[in-house]
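Lab notebook, bench 4. Still working through the backlog of constructs that have no structural model yet. Next entry is a single chain of 180 residues. Request: give me the structure tokens for it.
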Amino acid sequence: MQRAFVFILTALSVPAAVNAQSADAEIARALAPAPARAQADATVISLDADGQVTVLRQGSNGIMCWDASSAEGFSATCTSEANRARVQQNYAFNHSIGTPDEIRAKFDEAERNGTRALSEFGTMYYHLDGSDQASARSHISVVVPFATAESLGLPDTRNADRAWIMAAGTSTAHLMIPGR
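Model written out:
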């Protein structure tokens, strides 16, 4: 009888240990693009297909990170928690049913009708993407909604040796900071 009890307790504890290891691995992947000084206190989230957030670890420094890896490769991003509405909207649009053109049309319509969630001006997005985590490349973008080359005095074409504005003049405008 005592053996059966120990067996049942052991059997019940194994899934919990596996889930804890899985959550720890997801948290570690999500934190990978964050600056080292920010990792310990960053919030880690998980997003479902409609953009709903589950907090895997609550942080205190205003940075949130998530693992968006898929069968195609590794992808993780960190940004300010002030950008949560934009992140959720992006995730929901990108995971909606439709062709790539239909999904792009959702973004365009939200931009046109003023329902596009905005990221906070001056906040950063830290990205790490690649076929796997070991070979992933990093880049940083700084959010500058509706900025143009004229308003910031920076180029709006890709440049390997300096920051440049991508998507100038739109709610998506951001400074690209070349990385490794």
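Notes after review: The chain has a mean pLDDT of 87. The chain has one domain: 2-143. Flag for follow-up if needed.
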